[in-house]
Design brief:
Elements: H1 3-17, H2 30-37, H3 43-54, H4 58-75, H5 84-94, E1 106-109, E2 111-115, E3 130-139, E4 142-151, E5 157-165, E6 177-182, E7 185-191, E8 197-202, E9 208-214, E10 219-226
Parallel strand pairs: 1-10
Antiparallel strand pairs: 2-3, 3-4, 4-5, 5-8, 6-7, 6-9, 9-10
Bound molecules: zinc ion (ZN).
Length: 230
């Protein structure tokens, strides 16, 4: 395998195996760093991103390096094959293969089966700095477990989730795009790791829905987030 490709895989693996980050710092997501690498972000955002890096964010630095590397690999024509897994992950992450909203996929609506706000003793961290809420949805054979974390004083919300097949727990749910939309507008997207886990960071707004296309099943899970917890 090409050493560059190994490097790329390494970066992806490192990112995947890290425990979900819970701090609610305003990071830039992978699509923003992809645009940065392609030099297509507006000047003021470019400045913000640069200064974020200069403040020493290692997470964003890693994403930036990864995408610059990937851009370089792409531009070097196919002298070798990018490992399929890496290619699929990167494509899904940066939306090169921006899934057209395929009507062919059968929509499967999720229903809420658990919400920690209804509990007397809420699950999760309830410290002075962070507000956490956990909800569980069922959609067809799948369960979607979501934890919302909101740092006091921060405008953004961190959503940590996990998808699982309840009937066939062994089903691999890695590398699935997880897309947050408001109406028809894509807000942000992420990709599930080996364990079906994903993380998104966004600024709450109304009518948020989470879409998880399951191409192999011909289905797309839809989870209404409604008003996200504050
Ligand atoms: Zn960052």
């Amino acid at each position: 395998m090409d050493p560059e490709a190994v490097f790329l895989l390494d970066l992806l693996q490192t990112g995947k195996n890290k425990s979900p980050m819970t701090e609610a710092v305003r990071h830039f997501d992978i699509t923003e760093w992809a645009d940065y690498a392609r030099n297509t972000v507006p000047a003021d955002q470019h400045r913000q991103m640069l200064s974020h890096l200069q403040n020493g964010c290692s997470r964003c630095e890693r994403l930036k390096s990864l995408l610059l590397k990937f851009a370089a690999i792409c531009s070097r024509e196919a002298t070798y094959e990018i490992p399929r897994a890496a290619e699929a992950q990167v494509k899904a992450m940066i939306g090169l293969a921006k899934a057209p909203r395929r009507s062919a996929l059968q929509r499967v609506w999720a229903s809420l089966v658990y919400d920690s706000v209804n509990d007397l003793q809420p699950v999760g961290v309830r410290g002075t700095h962070q507000i956490s809420r956990q909800v569980l949805f069922h959609a067809g054979d799948y369960s979607v477990d979501l934890r919302f974390e909101h740092e006091k004083g921060s405008a953004s919300m961190v959503l940590v989730g996990q998808i699982a097949n309840q009937k066939t727990p062994d089903e691999t749910l890695a590398n699935l795009p997880v897309i947050l939309v408001a109406g028809n507008r894509e807000v942000t997207r992420s990709i599930s790791n080996t364990f079906g886990e994903f993380q998104l960071e966004y600024v709450p707004e109304s009518d948020l829905r989470l879409l998880v296309p399951l191409e192999a099943k011909g289905q797309e899970l839809e989870v209404e987030l409604g008003k996200t917890p504050q």
